[in-house]
Structures are given as structure tokens and as C-alpha cells.
Amino acid sequence: MLTFAPNGNRNALQKLMLGTVAAAFFAAIAAWALNAPAAAQAPAKDKVPDLASISFAWLSVGGWLDPPAGMRGPIRNDPDHPLHGNNDGPGQVTIAAGNWKDPVLKPWAAKQMRESNEEALSGKRGLPFTAQSRCYPGGVPGQLLYPAEPFYFIQTPKQVWMIWQRDHMVRRVYLTDKHSEDVKPSWFGESIGHYENGDTLVIDTIGLSTKNSYIDNFRTPHTTKLHVVERYKPSADGKMLEAMVKVEDPDTFNEPIHMLKRWRKVNNPMLETVCAENNLDYFNQNLFPIPEATKPDF
User: Fold this and answer.
1) Hey, which of 90, 191, 214, 250 would disulfide with 205, CB 3.0 to 4.6 Å?
2) Do the strands 57-65 and 2-3 form a parallel or antiparallel pair, or are they unpaired?
3) What sign for the dihedral angle of Cα 92, 98, 100, 102?
């Protein structure tokens, strides 16, 4: 299946062909990765968690959860503006307004969050910025919060890929023990990783761009000093996936933040969803503009 909306630049047949080719390409890579000898024939001590498949995926369950007791947890909603979501029963849906008064925030970060809240609460902007609703990559760890569509792993001896169905976002994790000496900031930064205890994938990320990049849906900002460590572990029955995420940024937070995230396994073949086509501001809500290329690809 391919999800798209027509526009004046390409006809539907072209889109269908391009989407089908892309989906087949990803499926071929996944099939190759799953048959890689290093993964299939690894001795017991070198076993890795089974995260990848061309037939199942991982679908988000809720947002950031609290970590174990004793750890500083995630930023929460501003108590002065309670959050009422689409799944919270009858009542007016409200915007996600982060608690800018949280003492973990440095003054500049608190100020930026307050201004972002006020922009939406005042009606200046109909909805606050959320990355993938406006076709932007979600960054690290913000991308993990995308709720509506699943993501997939591809595991090879040297790399792990995380591929989101939404706009076919791809994040690459290099299975090495050392970051590059000079890392240029980018949407997903530089991620290196390794396996632990035969059941956990550990990912260490630096070099994250700050433009339109946040650690959560409350638009909690960060600087280029952001350092994120994620630990992915499937449940004993393989039906759930859990990640413990540690966020450090001495220029933004007064102490490290720890967040828990969960996904459930779903039987989805690898699909493709296009975001940017026909994603316009139909109701004049002054939505954040979607990314636009300065020149055509072809």
C-alpha cells in the first residue's frame, strides 16, 4: 500500500511507481540484513536482540514515561494549562504546553518554552510545532515519540537502521565504540552502538542540530552539547519493546533527564507514507511551514 495525495507536479502513476520501488528497495535491504551470516550464526555469548523483520514493526505506546525511582524524569505539561488529548474522552482538546517553570531548565530554555506556549495559547499560531506533523525529522530523542505509524529495525554486522514508515525517515547507528573526532551537527546526529547481555541495543548519540529540534512534544530545546544514550530491550515474550533514554546537556539542563518509552509489536509489512504532499494550512491556523527545497531533485 502507498499513501499519497496528488499535486500539480507529478501524476499519480509516477508516484505509485516511485513509492513501490522505494518499498521494494527497503524490503530487499531488510531481507539481506536478516540473512547476514554474522547475525544468523552468532554464538550464544554474541547473541543480539531480535528487533528486525520485514513483516513486523514497532508502534508507539504513549509518550515519555517516568523512569525508575530515584532518577530525574521527563518534562511534564504546564500544570496551569492541563493537557486534554484526543484519547482522553469528552472535552475540548488542548495544546501541549510544557512546564517552563521546571527547575531542571536553564533560564534561556525556560524562556524559549514559555514564549512557545504563549504563541499557541494566544492564538497567534493555531497549533504549536511538532516535527513530523509538519514533515520535519524529530531529532534524537524526539523522533521516538511519533505515535501514529510504526518504525522498523534493520540489523547488520556493522550498522543498525531505524526506518520510520512516516516519510521514510532513516536513522543509522554504527556498531563501533568511538565517535568521529569532528561531528557536524545534523537531524539525527552521529549514533554509535553496541549490544549488551544478548538482549539490549545501546545507542550513543552526539552532534545533534538545534534548529527545529526538541527532546519532546513540549518543545523542550537543547544545544549542540546534547548527549543521548538509549537502551533498547524487548520484553521476555517479544511483544513489547522498551527504551530507557538518558539526556544530558549542561547548557540546557541542571541535571541529566531520564525517560522511558515503550512500543508494541505489530504485524505490519514495510510500507511508505509521504508527508509533505498536500500538507497545507487549509484552515489558516498559521501553522509552522513545512520544509521546502530550494531547487527540484530532477
Assistant:
1) 191
2) unpaired
3) positive
